[in-house]
């Protein structure tokens, strides 16, 4: 299957992408991984992306699209892939269609993870990270530490990242609504969109997604 995964920040796309890709036996292709791999390998596209990123500029669509095209042509993606974080806007969606058409391929589904905006804010703004080890992550509601502000694992101080503040989260949601959400209508016109609620436990959401995709 060839799937695009969409949803607002905080919808759990990365988590669901990993589980779905494993269940479907297809590679999980995320924009972040594409950038990191190309930059670390020193590819031409990676060097271009790094130059823009170092200058504090957005990486142009054509660079991102080129990376995605190269990745989708790898042997492990011959039977399908799951795209996470790409396409990010309608222009990228149109470019993806053109790339797939040129290769004689097409998308099978666009999985839309639906989460109420207040829940997104609650999920992200409630995160607390350990200063000693950023791998230790807690949540004031869903995974509260035994002692407020103290990491259960190493005793480090827990803090809220600037990116996780409610103000920043709401700005990210505005960007999502403006830039990314329109691709849902774009794909809905192609009868590709499958929408599920991303509320509930991780395995419950994965089960809902798998059932929806099978239909």
Any idea what the radius of gyration is? 18 Å
Provide the CATH superfamily: P-loop containing nucleotide triphosphate hydrolases
The major sheet is characterized as: 5 strands, parallel
Helix count from the secondary structure assignment: 9
CATH architectural designation? 3-Layer(aba) Sandwich
Number of domains: 1
Distance between the termini: 13 Å
Number of distinct beta strands: 8
pLDDT averaged over residues: 94
User: Helix content range of the residues, please?
Assistant: 40-55%
Order of helices and strands: EHEHHHEHEHEEEHHEH
Give the overall silhouette.
globular
Secondary-structure content class: alpha/beta
| Main CATH class | Alpha Beta
Spans with pLDDT under 50 lasting ≥5 residues?
A: none
**What fraction of the residues are assigned to beta strands by DSSP?**
5-15%
CATH topology: Rossmann fold
In the sheet with the most strands, the strands line up as 2-3-1-4-8
């Amino acid at each position: 299957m060839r799937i695009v995964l969409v949803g607002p920040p905080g919808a759990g796309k990365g988590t669901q992408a990993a589980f779905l890709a494993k269940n479907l036996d297809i590679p999980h292709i995320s924009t972040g991984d594409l950038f990191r791999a190309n930059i670390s390998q020193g590819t031409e596209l990676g060097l271009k992306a790094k130059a823009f990123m170092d200058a504090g500029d957005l990486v142009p669509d054509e660079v991102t699209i080129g990376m995605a095209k190269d990745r989708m042509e790898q042997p492990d993606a011959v039977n399908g892939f799951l795209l996470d974080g790409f396409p990010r806007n309608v222009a990228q969606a149109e470019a993806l269609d053109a790339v797939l058409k040129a290769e004689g391929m097409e998308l099978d589904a666009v999985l839309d993870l639906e989460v109420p905006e207040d829940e997104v804010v609650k999920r992200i703004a409630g995160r607390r990270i350990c200063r000693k080890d950023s791998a230790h992550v807690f949540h004031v509601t869903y995974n509260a530490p035994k002692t407020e502000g103290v990491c259960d694992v190493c005793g480090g101080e827990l803090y809220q990242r600037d990116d996780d503040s409610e103000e920043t989260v709401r700005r990210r949601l505005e960007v999502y609504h403006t830039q990314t959400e329109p691709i849902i209508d774009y794909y809905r016109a192609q009868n590709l969109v499958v929408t599920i609620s991303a509320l509930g436990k991780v395995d419950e959401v994965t089960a809902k997604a798998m059932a929806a995709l099978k239909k």
